[in-house]
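Components:
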Amino acid sequence: MKGLLIKDYRILTKQKIILILIVIMGVLLPFGSDDGSFLTNYAILVLSLFSLSTISYDEMNGGLLFLLSLPADRKMYVKEKYIFTGLNMVISSLFSLGTGYAAALTKQTGEGIDSLALGVTGTVLVIGIMISVAIPLTLKFGAEKGRMLIAIATMGVGAVIIIAYKTLTDVFHIDLVGGLGKLLGGIESEAAVNGILIGGLLLILLLVLFCSYLISNRIMRKKEF
Amino acid sequence: MLLKLENVKKKYGSFELDCSMEIKSGQVTGLIGRNGAGKSTTFKSVLGLIYPDSGDIEMFGKKLSEITPEDKEQLGVVLAEANACEMFTAKDLLPVLKAMYKHFSEREYLERCKQYDIPMDKPLKEFSTGMKAKFKIIMALSHNAKLLILDEPTAGLDVVMRTELLDMLREYMEDENNAILISSHIATDLEGLCDDIYMISDGKIVLHEETDVLLSEYGVLKVTEEQYEKLDREYILATKKEKFGYLCLTNRKDFYQENYPQIAIEKGNIDDLIMMMGKRGK
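Structure:
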């Protein structure tokens, strides 16, 4: 496992342009824009999606055959991809949070670390869902064929979430936001509310990633080389 | 017994692998056969890269399904179609291999790279075919593996590089607990290295023989049609029609030398086996 992680981080360090972009964009965007938009968390997007690039590097030129002939099996390979993704999410989230907070302090926006963390967690959740769809598809169809399917599937998942939300609110008249507001309404501290929301989002993220991991494992188990 | 395959079957369309073989400690076992005969399918089955339809594979006394990554540390593998990421240098791969294998010897790895002129800072994509082949063997040899599985390790190499590579393997076999399963298209490589040879044709093992026996007792008879009609064919393994008559492969060269002194008999070798017992022989 450790060897596979070292291998993936070596691939990452070979992509100097990506690392430079992450640092430049990661610093420029929070300082350059006034809102905590999705793009300010550029580092999370690029670093988290990098695990997909490592799969395509592994596929190239019989790389996966080489890796599986080392002391690694299919299960370990899949597990490593999710751990690599998770580590990158944590590192990039902390980086985004750091640069975002530094920007907030410099510009004196008064935005608290908890509110920034909620924004970062939201971004991580969206990207986490994208990754959860993309990893099994890339493992199943390969990086080349998988690319189009990932775009379609990600849009599909987004559409399902929106339709499910609309159905619950419009058809069944369940006010999710209102309900959540009522549930958290009793809590006076905004930081505590943000903390609960972050915890909830992270829980959803872990659940989604775990389901994706199980699917990826199944795909790899059936794969023949 | 380090490796045992028992009636391992795998079907791909009209091709079916049906293979049984044993690899013992202290032995170098060769697997020969024409392209598409089933050598790579056998190797992939052994490495769990494909799933056989039936049959049993045992490695290090365990069923293949029970083999763990820790068990695989005793294995050194070179597959013709498997390559490390080509962006990497030998230096990049050092920490990867070190983390993968408990018994990885950094000293041996660095010494061998130096000995065989492997540049440490050059990406693998810039390596020549020979350098790539040597480097693959160096990676497989640097962690005290008990069993080497080598699929066409000498493919595309000139005679000097092949000799260097075979020397590495001979050095590895100085430890009597080690074993090698190797396939190669180059018969002379196997003749000088292997203790026993399995011949695979159309997915089936058609012959298993000790190399010494093969080289001393096998032979090819060149006979006219008339001689062929009168020939006692009890020890003829395969026959091939030629313009002048027939080529007959025998495992009892001495029998024909004694009883048919007028027949031209050539010493047997692995190339003859492949030619005569491969798909187009018989």
